[in-house]
Amino acid sequence: PCFSEDKMRSFNRNRRVVKGVLKRCTSFLASPEVIKKIPRFLGAHPSRAGKFPRPIAGSIDEEIANAKCYVRLQVKKTMCICAPVGHVGLTADQLRRNIVLTVNCLVSLCPKGWGNIKRLYIKSTMGPAVDLILSS
Predict the structure, then answer these.
(1) What one-character-per-residue DSSP string does 51-86 give?
(2) Is the whole-model pTM more than 0.70?
(3) How many other C-beta atoms can be found within 10 angstroms of the C-beta atom of residue 18?
(4) Cβ-Cβ contacts under 8 Å for 66 (sequence gap 6 or more)
(5) pLDDT digits (tens, 9 = 90+) for 110-129
(6) Which of 43, 56, 59 is nearest to 9 (CA)?
């Protein structure tokens, strides 16, 4: 959905309405001029939910395509991290590229790099997990 400044102003920082909008969408895009006004219209709710809008730098079509490809990895104190890397419509080469990018991103977030990773598994939704062999 697309929200104008007037529509966002009508939310009037209503917590229930803003949270409902944040639940419906996974990511938000906004022009740099509007991003400055969003805290006034919506309050701190987008920041707390981790869905503050990303600025539109190039064309809107490119930004929408990038937002659809965006995957967020959060490394916490858990021993298992799950991340989506593809879907049924991808070719084997595209899926391999996504897996490599995701693993490299995960390694860069770890303090000891590859020293923190013992095992990697790839799993489809309903299929068995496949263990990746890590060579040292």
Answers:
(1) -PPEE--S-HHHHHHHHHH-------S-S-------
(2) no
(3) 20
(4) none
(5) 888 888 888 888 888 888 88
(6) 43
